[in-house]
Amino acid sequence: MRYTSDLTQSEWDLISYCFPKASSFGRPRKYSQLEIFNGILYVNKTGCQWRNLPKDLPPWASVYHYYRTWTRSTLLPQIHAHLREHVRLEAGKKRKPTAAILDSQTIKSSESSGERGYDAGKKINGRKRHLLVDTLGLVLMVMVLPANVQDRDGARQLLKRCSGIYKALRLIWGDGGYAGPLVNWVQRQLGCLLEIVKRSDDVRGFKVLPRRWVVERTFGWFGRYRRLSRDYERLTASGEVMVCLAMTRLMLRRLTN
Description:
The chain is of the alpha/beta class.
């Protein structure tokens, strides 16, 4: 193994069958899919530009071509979802969650980012990751929007996207930013209870809040992947895939340890 982002053979065996088989027509592949995927993971881990991939990995143009192809075909999010169900089963959970935690993370974006906005509360010009995680901290759904989109509005878009996927969901925890009309909307549209976990005004300093610490830990996991330190992606969809890649790497290591 050359880099800490590279997959071991046991990790690759868990997902290798998900990738498309080589065609019997045309020119044979010059680089293995494992090497291509290792190149994508290297960018995700180190935060380097595609053109600055090390020479002992496949050429950056080939790696980026496959990244775009697998992103457009939703293959990378599908692999992430498959591994999440595997990890849940290993932890004694059901495949589909019945409870989740909702939160958002505002991050700076680069000048190449397409859609971005200014978060007046955090005083950050960039984007906002709206996140829904299960009780293990595994990502159920991520949506990247301009930072000026309010948490409640972003949550509506996020929950609309996952409404037909997680039909067993019955309880969602969120912070005070989601209080108000969103609680009734979630109950009416999704049949879920949105429970607001508020911080007491009497408490000073840091305090671990029930359930909310789970999603904060997930944001901490993102810190291990420098590509997620800010949003370098031109498209918001690419920013969502980068989150899935980071969680995919984390879950593969967890399943093979």
